[in-house]
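Technical note accompanying the year-one report. For the benefit of new consortium partners, we illustrate the data format agreed upon in the data management plan: each record pairs a sequence with a structure-token string. No post-processing was applied to the example shown here.
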Amino acid sequence: MADQKVFVRTMGCDKNTVDSETMLGGLLSHGYALTEVPDEADLIVVNTCCFIEAAKKQSIDAIFDLLPYRTHEDEKCSAFVVAGCMAQRYAEELKAELPEVDYFVGVNQLEDLPEILGQREQKIYASPEIHDEAQGRYVKKGRVTEYLKISEGCDNHCTYCAIPNIRGRHRSRKPSEIVKEAQMLYDNGVRELILVAQNLTQYGVDLEEDYELADLLDELAGTIPFKWIRLLYMYPEGIDERLLDVIAKHKNICQYFDMPIQHTEDEILRRMGRHIDKKEIYGKVKLIRKKCPDAVLRTTVIVGFPGETEAQFEAMCQTLKALKFERLGAFAYSREEGTPASEMPDQIDEAVKEERVQRIYEQQEAISTAWNTRWIDQEIPVLIDEVDENGIAIGRTRGDAPEIDGDVIIETPGPKPGHFYQVRIVDAIGFDLIGEVINESTE
């Protein structure tokens, strides 16, 4: 396989990014070389997402964009793989519609890809069989920010979500394996570690030992000197005083709480299958603000859930205004087949949903702008993600996750991607900050 090259396009969330890197680790260990140019590839893999309708469309578009490299006679590609969530959920339907695809590989068989490529009698590999641990992972040279998945699957069974049907039940990774992978990432130059899962705060509930997210954070932050450790997807039900005490204890754990609540009104929350109510949401926010005064809170909400009235939507807007989440994402409800919510009466018109999304964002921009304005004339650490062709550096604060939150825009010459700097904030525009570099940070 020494002369075989693989091209991978990853769709969807950062958990899919981890899956792709794990899959690549197996392929590279079997002699493949990575290419970023599809017309050089002997093997093309599209790692798909099907969380909502928009994600399905993007994945299908990616397949059709790359499939000509397999079907045209003058192209080098000899194998085309559709992998991940769509292959797990829709393999039979995709096989019927896309006979040109060589293999459909589900989420539980990604690390088996090197062996699968040697099989010709079957096209679908998407069983519910689950591997205990991945055997290796590819880490791109020079990467300063990386994601680490600490668990897989979900037991929440929210009525709008198909993830349990695709990814299976919740299962926590062994602490020793997580710490081992974290150390590997650090040794390869990673300085911002982002822990991800469908629900971080459920970590450890299925482990035989008495070990939970607070213990894992204490071990990671105390033994590996990452500059920043960030947490994504923390269901509020599992946020408690002990977890907050550990986060407050370690300076290298960002006090950044990505806490998806999805709605604020009790009747909608009940119909969503969420295990929390408005009073508890207020209580969790109050507890976080008390224990971690410098916390930045991010949430996501779904608008236009079946039966959501204008009054319920307005009540959610008022609650969000009162809670003042510094960061917020709003999504129009997506009707997913096979979920209880898809069969509920009173489905909301798409135009109404989009109009409500727009209203949420207009309100949130005022909240985020007020938050950003407080940083003017202050000096804060910033991680530079990129420098564009005009020399303008784009970075992030501790309170901003990559790709989903605001940026710090710096015109001062000199900052390098992957480095931390002390930056003086000189202005705030909408969701973004404008700054100038003071010096390289020792953080």
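Partners are asked to follow this layout when depositing records. The first strand starts at residue 5 and ends at 10.
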